[in-house]
Each structure stands twice: as C-alpha cells, then as structure tokens.
C-alpha cells in the first residue's frame, strides 16, 4: 500500500547547478528503487535560512511530493542524513482522504412565549 509523502530538503548553498541536479536525481532514483511513484519535484531555489545551520546562512530548497510504501522512507532519510550536501530535511505524511460532511448542529428547542392582548 502506498501513501502520499512530501519531503522538503535543503542543500548547501555553495553547490553548483550541476551538483544540485545530481543530488536531485540521486534522491529521486533512490526513492524509485524503493517503489515510489508519481514524483513531483520543485526546486525552490536559494533562500535565506531563519537561523544558521552547519555554518550556512542560505540554502537551496527542494520540495519532493510522491507516493511510496512506508518502508521506503527510512533508507531515503538515512541517505540524506549521511550526505554532506543535505543540511536539513523533513518528510511529512500527507493525509488526503474523503472530505467529511460537516457535523449537523443539534436543533435548539425554541421557546414559545404566550402573549395576551387586552381588548377594550
């Protein structure tokens, strides 16, 4: 059974365009070997980090959306953890399911106020 995942990883800012493409291809092939499908890759480019990571103030952001079996994530993340080019990564499981209908509110009982009118 495959599940949808999103992995965002940050590459070192000193990598050249060719090295960035090689890294993207490397992780894409690693996931494919583990049974991943429907890959969508977005290179978000070089951005300023909120705080310094491994003495870097900038990083190259790569977003990867895919469907894969749960067993594919551990080897994928291990490869990134051991890599010199990846300074940070995060994998999130995406819950894409049927929309649930909104809960119906319980009807509140309405008060009936009796009014009398005086006739003259």
UniProtKB/TrEMBL annotation:
Membrane-spanning segments: none
PROSITE patterns noted in UniProt: RIBOSOMAL_S6
UniProt keywords, alphabetically: Ribonucleoprotein, Ribosomal protein, RNA-binding, rRNA-binding
Comp. bias regions, Low complexity: 111-120
Taxonomy, superkingdom: Bacteria
GO cellular component, as recorded: ribosome
Record's keyword annotation contains Ribosomal protein: yes
Regions of compositional bias (Basic and acidic residues) in chain numbering: 95-110
Region entry Disordered, spans: 95-120
Cited function: Binds together with bS18 to 16S ribosomal RNA.
Family affiliation: Belongs to the bacterial ribosomal protein bS6 family.
Protein name per Swiss-Prot or TrEMBL: Small ribosomal subunit protein bS6
Organism: Nostoc flagelliforme FACHB-838
């Amino acid at each position: 059974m495959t599940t949808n995942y999103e992995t965002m990883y940050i590459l070192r800012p000193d990598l050249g365009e060719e090295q960035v493409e090689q890294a993207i291809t490397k992780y894409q092939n690693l996931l494919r070997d583990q049974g991943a499908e429907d890959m969508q890759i977005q290179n978000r480019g070089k951005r300023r980090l909120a705080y310094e990571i491994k003495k870097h103030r900038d990083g190259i952001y790569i977003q990867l959306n895919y469907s894969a079996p749960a067993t594919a994530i551990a080897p994928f993340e291990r490869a990134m953890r051991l890599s010199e080019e990846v300074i940070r990564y995060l994998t999130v499981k995406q819950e894409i399911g049927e929309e649930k209908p909104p809960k119906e509110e319980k009807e509140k009982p309405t008060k009936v106020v009796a009014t009398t009118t005086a006739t003259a």
